[in-house]
Design a protein that fits this description.
The complex is a heterodimer. By secondary structure, chain A is of the alpha/beta class. Chain A has 15 helices and 22 strands. Classes of the chains: A alpha/beta, B mainly alpha.
Chain lengths: 471, 485
């Protein structure tokens, strides 16, 4: 695929890094030559210096025969203009833009083909905010990811002493939970993946990924570890873009305090938020954390834009008694350093948000992609097209499908259409089916696939493509 | 050039407009043949002549108004307007002193509604009409009218508007041009007035009474053409209409304007004062009704509710009508009503007192202090209706509250020093400075302010002016700084 990426900031470079490894031709455009040089030194791609909103620059970046445009510059307006130009002058089929201003986001009509012609709008801050909000909602989990418009969830949990299922074979889940259906997609033991079968025994410290209908996940989590009290008090360190969004999203449900270093931004923050208590101070100030009762906090999130501050602040918070600490860490080296240590969850913004982009790069009809375990593993929601003759999956039982090693099918979401009432309105019903060996895949099923090794993703993609030869 | 000379041509114009407003009561007088026609003609001529002389004599001194000129103009317009308006009363009522007549017209123009006249039913209809017309004119503020009309004559308006319209929110202009805003407000005022008069008529008043009481209701004044006020009809329906329109008039007319223009109720929802204002007033109605019922004042709860609702709304909205002598209720009830009248009505309405928005800001400030004590590093903005108030606004509200309380204390002491009892002194001053009307004890709803000595009457007159022009405007004129060049 030929992809033009506009903007070599945090999102731009991490996307470039991810995509370049998947055999794509990447061109990156940015106004900062130094930043581009660094990128070029590291990765095999082309760079163009210039304003991404200018036709000539786009032309030089190869927009004329690009398959996809990814506009992720700092400026919403540049991104919008670039998409419009890509549509009218260069006919690029897929245009994705990062839009941050909520005012733009609340008017989706401006993204239609006759207006700014943005096919997909992404907002990494929002993705990240949703991600953290989920972790606060399910404080026992390491990660909660949603598929099929939220109907199915993939949850990562660390198995703890005292969980009823810990130390037992997986097949006992059925006996423990007769009413809940789930499938353990993978287990990571000391960072290496195990593809589970019925006799696999869950051990203490295992990172267990299971797939279930969203409403069942609380019940299943209870089997793997003791449940904590529900979260009531949340403290956020850092009132930047993400801190502000997170506070806004959760302030009605929890008691929220937020610490911001800059006095002016703290005042703006206080003006924008309604119930959140905004404190002016340093997130690593022990005294401040003490006076604000860090020890009583159920969750502490360190979300400043400084990795070191986030690490120190969350370590401090943990030491002072915060029940659970979450730190935002950009450098992947640091993530590996602190995860599973004193810091409960280290979030890499690039990894958390890359999935929304990957879904558009994947071959075949891919609805959602979530990048897991710092990019090593991946979970995909794919649509099975075709019929028993043209497809390698449709019409087959799961045990018959030739899945690459290290891949499991976790769940299937099937849409039933039926005509309701007398007015002929079509009702859609979505059925979540947890995959078992004898489940048969039907056309247009959404299949959720878990891949422990990213290198096998392309094989999975090919599996789901309709083979033209048989048509 | 002194500020005095600069504002004279404007005052002249206002006097001439005043003289035109004599035409309405003059028509009434001729229609009823009540013998006051001559007084109105004479007064009209004097008004016009003096206005003309002032305008002609000083018009070459005219220049754009500075804020200082604006303040002086507002104060003089009110004092002078009240003085000119006394002429028909003085000429038509033999034996009326200037002190009493001035109290009466000031009470009208400041929409207070306290009176020194008794036997109102026997008074010439045109004079009753004149008293109530003054309330209506004063209601939206002579100045807002002047802002809408006088700019057409080449008189700038921005400064006057700032000095006149009360409250911290006023800088948010509703239309780009001040003249348009004032005109819009005036049209809304007129539309609601017409609706109010028709509602009164349909509820059973004569057309004359309906119009007169509409004037008094819309201005939240409280003048009536009957000694018994609303007790004259003893009709729950008329009282209900009065309650409705008193509540409407105690809401910011800016919100009415925006709501009428956009034809939706969204502006009311966005009005941060509205919910508090209505909530507190209606809550008090029920509370007082329960209290009266508990004390056994009325035979059943429904009549308690009826009397409590009308009188609480009337006093809290700073109108001052009465349907019964609430002076006879246990002291808690009337005291609570007086307390309400000092803050319950919204800014930008025709009500008096410190206005709900200031009360809310004070509440928010107290809350901020609490939070600051618990969390010394917290950033707590003073947020009202989703908008952050600057600290200087809070400071000015605190200063305002201080002057307000100091004025009440000082004038109450003066009244007591002049020989009045404590309850009468206090309630008369509170009722005057809030532009409410009836106080308690000797100046209660069943009696008039005629019991006061001349000196005490002047103190109350001053209190009315002070309250109406939001304290600062009047007091600053008495500071040496104001007159320094």
């Amino acid at each position: 695929m030929r992809i033009v990426i506009l903007g070599a900031g945090q999102v731009g470079s991490s996307v470039a890094e991810n995509l370049v490894s998947e055999a794509n031709d990447i061109t990156v455009v940015d106004t900062d030559a130094g930043r581009l040089r660094k990128l070029q030194d590291r990765l095999d791609l082309r760079t163009i210096v210039g304003n991404a909103g200018h036709p000539e620059i786009l032309e030089r970046a190869g927009a004329r025969d690009a398959d996809m445009l990814l506009a992720v510059t700092q400026s919403d307006e540049t991104n919008l203009v670039a998409c419009k130009l890509a549509a009218t002058m260069f006919n690029i089929p897929t245009k994705i833009a990062r839009i941050r201003a909520t005012d733009y986001l609340s008017h989706p009509e401006m993204f239609t083909p006759e207006n700014f012609a943005v096919d997909t709008v992404i907002c990494p801050e929002q993705v990240l905010t949703d991600y953290i909000a989920k972790l606060i909602e399910f404080p026992e989990s390491l990660q909660v990811l949603e598929f099929a418009e939220g109907r199915v969830s993939l949850v990562a949990v660390r198995a703890f002493h005292g969980g009823p299922l810990v130390g037992k074979e997986l097949q006992t889940i059925r006996k423990h939970l007769p009413n809940l259906d789930t499938r353990v997609a993978a287990i990571f033991r000391q960072d290496s993946p195990i593809i589970p079968d019925a006799t696999t025994v869950i051990e203490v410290g295992d990172e267990v990924f299971f797939i279930a209908a969203t409403e069942d996940i609380r019940g299943i989590m209870r089997e793997l570890r003791r449940m904590d009290k529900p979260v009531k008090r949340v403290m956020i360190g850092g009132g930047g873009n993400i801190g502000r969004r997170l506070a806004k999203a959760i302030e009605d449900r929890y008691e929220v305090k937020i610490i911001e270093f800059n006095k002016r931004s703290a005042e703006n923050l206080a003006a924008a938020l309604n119930k959140t208590l905004v404190l002016v101070g340093d997130v690593t100030d022990e005294e401040l954390l003490q006076t604000e009762n860090i020890g009583d906090m159920d969750v502490y999130c360190a979300l400043t834009n400084d990795d070191e501050n986030n690490i120190m602040s969350s370590l401090l918070a943990k030491r002072m008694g915060a029940r659970r600490v979450v730190a935002l860490i950009n450098r992947s080296a640091y993530v590996n350093l602190v995860q599973a240590g004193q810091i409960d969850i280290a979030i890499s913004p690039a990894q958390a948000t890359i999935g929304t982009l990957l879904a558009h790069v994947r071959q075949g009809d891919c609805v959602a992609v979530h990048s897991l375990r710092r990019g090593a593993a991946e979970a995909l929601e794919l649509v099975a097209h075709g019929d028993a003759r043209s497809s390698k999956v449709v019409g087959r039982r799961i045990e018959e499908i030739d899945l690459p090693a290290g891949t499991t099918i976790g769940a299937i979401v099937r849409t039933h259409e039926r005509t309701a009432g007398t007015d002929g309105k079509i009702m859609r019903e979505h059925q979540v089916m947890i995959a078992h060996h004898d489940t048969v895949i039907e056309p247009d099923d959404h299949v959720i696939v878990f891949v422990v090794d990213k290198r096998t993703v392309s094989k999975v993609e090919r599996l789901f493509q309709v083979s033209v030869g048989f048509v | 050039m002194t500020p005095l000379l600069t504002v004279f041509p404007h005052l002249g114009l206002i006097a001439m407009v005043m003289s035109l407003s004599h035409l309405l009561p003059l028509g009434i007088s001729i229609g009823h043949d009540d013998g006051a026609a001559q007084a109105f003609v004479v007064s009209m001529i004097i008004n016009f002549a003096v206005g003309c002389a002032m305008w002609l004599g000083t018009r070459h001194k005219k220049r754009d108004l500075t804020p200082r000129d604006g303040i002086l103009l507002v104060v003089l317009a009110w004092c002078g307007g009240a003085a000119f308006a006394t002429l028909p009363l003085l000429l038509a009522i033999p034996g009326l002193t200037f002190t009493d007549a001035y109290f009466e017209t000031m009470s009208g123009l400041t929409t207070t509604g306290s009176t020194v006249l008794s036997e109102l039913d026997a008074l010439a209809p045109s004079l009753n009409f004149w008293r109530c017309l003054l309330v209506w004119l004063g209601g939206m503020g002579l100045i807002v009218l002047a802002v809408a009309i006088l700019p057409l004559l080449g008189v700038g308006g921005r400064q006057i508007f700032k000095a006149e319209t009360p409250g911290p929110m006023k800088d948010a202009k509703m239309t780009p041009r001040i003249t348009e805003t004032a005109k819009g407000l005036w049209v809304v005022y007129a539309i609601i007035s017409v609706a109010c008069a028709i509602a009164y008529y349909l509820a059973g008043m004569t057309w004359f009474d309906a119009v007169v009481h509409m004037f008094s209701t819309m201005g939240l004044g409280g003048f009536s053409s009957h000694d018994a006020s609303y007790g004259y009809w003893d009709s729950p329906l008329i009282e209900a209409v009065a309650i409705l329109f008193m509540l409407i008039a105690s809401i910011n007319f800016g919100s009415h304007f925006l709501a009428l223009r956009s034809r939706s109720i969204a502006p009311y929802r966005a009005d941060p004062e509205l919910a508090w204002c209505l909530g507190i007033i209606l809550g008090s109605c029920v509370g007082i009704a329960l209290y009266l019922d508990w004390m056994g004042i009325y035979p059943d709860f429904l009549s308690s509710l009826r009397y409590a609702s009308f009188n609480v709304v009337s006093i809290a909205s700073t109108t001052g009508f009465a349907s019964t002598d609430f002076n006879l209720w246990p002291i808690f009830a009337p005291m609570w009503m007086l307390f309400l009248c000092s803050f319950a009505s919204c800014s930008g309405s025709t009500g008096g007192g410190i206005k709900m928005i200031r009360a809310q800001l004070l509440y928010i400030q107290v809350y901020r202090e609490f939070v600051k004590l618990l969390h010394p590093t917290a950033a707590v903005p003073a947020k009202l209706g989703g908008q952050v108030m600057e600290n200087k606004v809070i400071f000015s509200v605190l200063a305002f509250l201080f002057i307000y309380i100091a004025s009440i204390v000082a004038m109450t002491l003066v009244m007591m020093a002049s020989g009045l009892d404590d309850l009468t002194s206090f309630s008369a001053i509170v009722a005057s400075i809030n532009n409410t009307g009836p106080g308690l004890h000797k100046v209660g709803p069943a009696t008039t302010y005629a019991v006061l000595s001349d000196f005490q009457t002047w103190v109350c007159t001053f209190a009315m002016l002070l309250g109406r022009l939001e304290l600062f405007t009047v007091l600053i004129v008495f500071t040496p700084v104001f007159w320094r060049k």
